[in-house]
Write a structure and sequence with these properties.
Number of helices: 5
Number of domains: 1
Distance between the termini: 30 Å
Largest sheet: 10 strands, mixed
CATH topology: Pnp Oxidase, Chain A
Order of helices and strands: EHEEEEHEEHHHEEE
CATH architecture: Roll
Number of strands: 10
CATH superfamily: Electron Transport, Fmn-binding Protein, Chain A
CATH class: Mainly Beta
Length: 198
């Protein structure tokens, strides 16, 4: 689930709420999965991965990760990202372009403290995306953190990322391939609406 909080009342966010409610009604699995693409400036390669979108608060989209991870390094050196959601139960795709930044430490603490000890132990134990000799070593590191810590505190290297889209495309699939595509681009303090051909 994605927690929608004080959702922005502009037209793109009305579309988001509409499509989200329809996907929930159709029992969409893993509804919070969102693909985030970033630029690795050292290799000049675009890299993509799925993360779990936890919140949309007003117009901020928020997920959590390791701040030492490859994607975090990408965000630091190049703060523009692309993001895509696809809900197959309703055949809807939402594409976005945005600038990304870290959330406040206080916000990250609040979210971390509401998670299960098992999830928090993994956040502490994992050097995300770094090589390791075996999967069994990951299990052992995780178990060790749980056994050694009575109180799990959020490490400085783990927290939230927030992005505010300046571009949306809402794509509705059609069995005849006459797909509906509506875009919104934020320019001069307002959203400019357009339609794209299938």
């Amino acid at each position: 689930m994605i927690e929608l909080v004080n959702l922005n009342q502009s037209e793109p966010y009305n579309f988001l709420k509409k499509y989200y409610d329809e996907a929930i009604a159709k029992n969409q699995k893993i509804i919070e999965a969102i693909s985030i693409s970033s630029l690795n400036k050292s290799s000049m390669e675009v890299e993509s991965r799925f993360v779990n979108l936890k919140y949309v608060i007003n117009d901020e989209w928020i997920f959590f990760s390791n701040y030492n991870s490859i994607k975090a390094q990408n965000f630091h050196s190049h703060d523009q990202i692309s993001a895509v959601i696809f809900w197959n139960q309703t055949n809807v795709q939402i594409r976005m372009k945005a600038k990304i930044k870290k959330t406040s430490p206080e916000f990250s603490d609040k979210h971390f403290n509401g998670r299960t000890p098992e999830k928090n132990a993994l956040a502490i134990a994992s050097n995300q995306s770094m090589p390791i000799d075996s999967y069994e070593q990951i299990i052992e590191k995780h178990r060790s953190v749980i056994n050694e810590n009575n109180e799990l505190k959020r490490p400085d290297y783990w927290g939230g990322f927030s992005f505010k889209p300046y571009y949306f495309e809402f794509w509705e699939g059609n069995t005849s391939r006459i797909n509906k595509r509506i875009t919104y681009e934020y320019t001069k303090n307002s959203w400019k609406k357009s339609f794209l051909q299938p």
